[in-house]
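Hello forum,

I keep getting stuck at the same step: I have a sequence, I want structure tokens, and every attempt I make locally crashes halfway through. Rather than fight my setup again tonight, could one of you with a working pipeline run this one for me? It's a single chain of 174 residues.
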Amino acid sequence: YDDKTQSWVNHFMKIRRTVNKLDAFHRLKLTGVSIPRITADLVEAMKWQEKGTIILARTTATGYDGEGIKVVRPGETLPSSPSMWYSAYVPKILEYRISVVNGGVVDVQQKKVKDGFTQDKDQKLIRTSSGGWVLCRENIMSPSSHTKLNCTAALNSLGLHFGGVDVVVDKETG
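Reply #2:
Ran it on my machine without issues. Output:
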């Protein structure tokens, strides 16, 4: 709560809607923020997979550090349950956590593999701290202005004054 303006900063109800990734993705998509393809429809996910897409089958929308994510490659059987949802894996060249405060970028960190960490094939795709990925501020590639704008748009879409946005730079659009 900000005593000067008599208003909430990152009101708890707005934070609450970001905790559920599926709800947050739907809101971001509705407001034109770039997100990965997502669905709760097994048949749709199977169609993506048939076209050669790796699917991230998710058992929870509120997981942290890769919790509940199963990597399913083309030809493998997609798991199914009433609470399951899926996202199309985005082949990426870079991944960042970009911190935004009041519409401006204040910090950029790039995810890199921890020196000496040996990853399995799934850990190379899902960039989590438990999978050997660390956030770095030094010796990083600077994100494009488009990437930064997408991050500020994401926070605006969610009604937040500040936050960190995990964002990928994909192989197709850079």
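Residues 107 and 113 are 20 Å apart (CA to CA). If your local run keeps crashing, start a new thread with the error log.
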